User: Fold these one by one.
Assistant:
Number 1:
Amino acid sequence: MAAPLCLLFRHSRAAWLFALIASGTALVISILLLQQVLATGLISYALGGWQAPWGIEYRIDTLNAFLLLIISSLSTVVLLAADTSISKEIPKEKHSLFYVLYLLSLTGMLGIVATGDAFNVFVFLEISSLSAYALIALGSDRRALWASYQYLIMGTIGATFILIGIGLMYQMTGTLNMHDLSNRLPEVAQTRTVFTAFAFVIVGVCLKLALFPLHLWLPNAYAYAPSIVTAFFAATATKVAIYLLIRFTYSVFGFSFSFTALPLQLLFVVLGVLGIFVASSAAIYQSNVKHLFAYSSIAQIGYMIVGFSISTVAGLTATLLHLFNHALMKGALFLALAAVMHRIGSVQLSALKGLGREMPLTMAAIVAGGLSLIGVPLTVGFVSKWYLVLALLENGWWPVAMLILLGSLLAIVYVWRIVEVAYFQPRVGPGELSKDSVREAPLAFLVPIWLLVIANVYFGIDTRLSVEVAQTASESLFGLSQ
Amino acid sequence: MFLGLYNYWIVVVLMMIGFYIVIAHGNLIKKLVGLTIFQTSVFIFYISMAKVNGGTAPIVGDGIEIYSNPLPHVLILTAIVVGIATTALGLALTVRIKEAYGSIEEEEIQKKDNSTC
Amino acid sequence: MLSGIYGLLSASFFVAMDAVDVAFTEASVGAGISTLLMFLAITMTERRDHSVRHKPWLALIVVVVTGALLIYGTLDMPYFGSADAPIHVHVAPRYINDSMQEIGVINLVTSVLGSYRAFDTFGEVVVIFTAGVGVLALLSVSRRPENDAKIDALNVSMHEQHLILRIVIKILIPFILLFALYVQFHGDYGPGGGFQAGVIFAAAVILYSMLFGLSTARRVINQPLTQFIAALGVLLYGSVGVVSLLNGGNFFDYNVLSDDPVAGQHLGILLIEAGVGLTVASVMIIIFFNFQGRKEYGQGQAKGDV
């Protein structure tokens, strides 16, 4: 398990590999990981041959495996398009650096998910975020620099908060291993120190997560990063943070502690719903489509947090499902935007006029992704929202369920704006000036985009695989904590 | 009883000084200085944990019975490296921002951004 | 300057806390490298400080709340220095009591760093590598010869003023390099190790380039070479893991590197420390060169404009 991962980072920098080989390696890894998912059960791998509390271990259960699969598959698909996309957005001599950073970031995320050691999480968190800062700063707009700097400050504060939290936990228990922590924390659960530790970890993770009041860094970072980077991060980065949240609250601190120490349930429901509404309404007023979808990402995080806060198996299943589904939709959407960027050099809403005719396949993909965001039946968005509403009703939280449906209406509004512009307005602006009409995106974009769109529809119709995995994962989490 | 904790409190004060600088200062380099102070105070916190009264540095020698706990030392070695890495990257960004905007004051940058939007 | 003193102060604090290894690192990093980088960055941007503290009250509230929470958290902590705190009785005793038999390295910090938590250290190397690549991506400039000439002229005029300093430094540098090597290989017995050695080594090169000009230093140590070495260090570290994997152990399980487990551990730690040293030294040099290069590039352009 550990070996293929580490081989990945070894190879990645060995020869400043080009896109093809790199994505090939990642693909192999993801297949290996898929097998890992199928071989159910808990897998623990002691690095260095030292047993768990002394050494560092990798600890893979269904949740990790699920997440690993999401991240690696998405990154592979995104990488397929990377070569063409960055050729225009990043200066030539920096291409190899781009790939190194990309792989480092991937490494960091996989490491966070795979490891079973709290401090190791911090180290990998820093790997992924440092490379993320650099990747964002590669954006061609000078605002990318500023966005990256803001992200760096916020991200480092978040990471340091997590570090403080881990330190406090370590102080009270004398161990850094997550499993060991979960065994030893209940003994000292009543102390104020553990309470503080919990608070710090939660705040730190929420900063990384861009949960509603702490989301300010996200829209700019997404909007000004190179398009391919946006596609990658939107599909994976926040998922990793959600994973950390789930892992710390359910596995490490234990379910009963997490939801009694703080009014977490209430807090997260309120923040989640607020996040959905504020971000969705903000999305409606954006003129930059990347900004629009970035805000919609924050709204989607709101949905996940609501599911998380229900704190039942059904709720958690909904969250995990949405995690997977959101990765698919946002991957497709941002890749399609990257294709638009590649062809017309802008993602301003006004630049998309009439693009439905010029780039039918790309725009169709955006529409499909948008439908999925809204939650139209036969798409993945529908499945996860369906499960979320079910879980809410099961708990008798029907007002929240109503609010969520209302939130989807907002999604209709912002998706409709794009559709309207792209299909019902005549083509004017930059495309006309250059006379030759804009051509359809190159194949390198279309293949990965449509792969994701088809996955969107497929998992929207045949829900067995994703639901089953999500369900087992959440059941095992509750099994662990009870 | 409070004597037993004073060390941690000093750390907290230091931490908050750093944190305040990060949030409140408008100068990008000063923000990074604040960040460094914030991180270093966390290092001190870890190292304080590791101290045992009457213990020595964790290097095995004859006739020494009590050692400080080596584990936090290791963690902090790693964390220091992470800290310098972050600082270096942050400074590099600042330099680029200066080139692109001609300023490293948060407010001026925001103003320039707003005017171009 | 203040931050340099701050770095030294915290370093001496670490010594008082018996953390010699950490003190060593902090002294070289906090007081050395990071201050230097700060200086460079400040000279490259602007010295004047006309910043306004915006929303100071809001910030103060956030800070006070966080601080209060932390103080609240400290109330239940085990007392400072008490030997029966959980951290001293749960995991750590294994390191203190058994590592002599299992690893045979006197410096416990090195043994934990290099073996028990080797993967963390690997992560650390990757972090520093990431930083190096990041700085490279942000700051590297393609050099043009005509600019170089101008920069050289600039440098010559600057450096003639520091004749005595140059001679002293010239004498010092070999000793610094030697000291770095000593620290590198002495990590098993005293405080020190790959990271500290790497920083010291880089410091020597940086000193040289500060006084003799970047292009002179570049003639000795060129950029592709440092990049290559940085990657090589990470690779060396990783391959130690892979080799132990191939020999039938787990990743980073040095016991299988040699017939005798203790000798295997020694070998493993030595190799990974070498990897750490290589990467750190070259990344530090990369970072410095790029900062300096950017600066001279800017100056050269300014001169050209005039």
Number 2:
Amino acid sequence: MASTSTTATVADDVEAEAFKRLYPEQFFDRFLGEGVRPDGRPLGRARAVTIGAGAITSADGSALVKVGRTSVLAGVRLELIRPDETTPGQGQLALNVELAPFSSPDYRPGRSATDAVSGVVEKLQAALLSGKDTVLLNTLCVAEGKAAWKAQLDVYVLDADGCVTDAVLLASIAALRNTRLPLVRNTKEGNYVPARRAEEGAAGLVEGCPRSVGLGRCPLALTCCLYKQHVLVDPTADEERLAECAVTVVVDQGGRLQGVYKAGGKVLADAATLLKCTEAARLRHKELSGLLEQSLQMGAEAAAER
Amino acid sequence: MVGVFGPRQSEVKLGFTDTGRLNCEVRYTSFAAARASKAEQGQAEAAAAQALSQALEASAQLERFPKAVFDVSAMVLEAGGADAAVLVTAASAALADAGVELHDLVSAVQVVKCGGQLLLDPSLEEGGAAEGSLLLAAMASTGEVTHMEVRGRWGDGELREGLELALGGCGQLRGAVREALLAGMEERAGGA
């Protein structure tokens, strides 16, 4: 008796899997008709997030972020440079996003991994560097016209299961805030070099050099999918593939809009839908910023122990 | 982290082979290690990829997959010493997890000689200060070595001692990998 029931469930499993592959839309519609999604979430719920600030000890600042199965690793590497002549009082921030080959089943060897994420880089660039009040580049300046930090922010997408932009932006913010700028020493020859930890308090240190990257705002993103008449918050890769269009909303800590992206698609979004997405993004920002503070605190404590 | 794709059809330009091939690719994150330049990093990546494919080739039953290619792509998130050994172990585990038929799991360890002492699985500082290093990749259940690299000056006795230490390490590691694979399978079976 027991054996027959187990074979029945196995057959059901196989059938469900086959059904999903052959008729993804019908498979999906059945769930949505009940008001749930294939992974058991209601339509309006985002996935659980974990943030690990300071995950990589060899980087100057880093964060590992997971949104459901989507995993993103961001790291900052610092370098002392002579500031650009046109902006003597500013440092630089270089952004780069890369997709690991094993992050997505759509990846094919030979295709450049950066093509797939060029849209993400653009959004990241807009969120962090446009408007000049998000990342405050003047806080990266050590001595005007002479020395400034160049922060190289590299983001690696390790597992792309939907909402890559959201995770990339969150990881970038966490990594930047996790970054500690070392003290800078002015050598006898007049060169500026980063001081090692043992030299703290030694002669020749530059007075009042910055210790952290200044962030005027804290932009975070939330992606929603529009599928038929439904709005799916924080979709997985499967859902993104099915849905005709996605709306990404970037808001800052005050709930102010910093960017809305709707990349074409067959479905037209009306004002009410966009407002709904914005509202969801504001709620998500509150949730995430709490987690972010907590994780940064833990990261700082761990760094102090080392 | 390591991912495996395949089998896929081999590219025509590479000619016909009646056995499968492993196509290994290794990437370091830019902040994985303090490195001077991009070129240096590229060299390290190429060298690591070569060592990886050499260490794994013998373990996979490639004759069962004629004309096919497996893509093994690895990414080093943080280099904290003995990267090459960890790469091999992780890639072998990924191959097994992907269901590629293997003769046995390959596990690899690094042993360094530091001030007359042998250290198993060195940290970055220990690796930098070492006078000699030994990288051993082995199929531990049969005790067969797939790949070995020895650098620096080693005496006969020292080398034997180092080998024994490394083989012991491989055995331990193989047990751990096996357990992790089994746990992963059970989890998936439970989730489905």
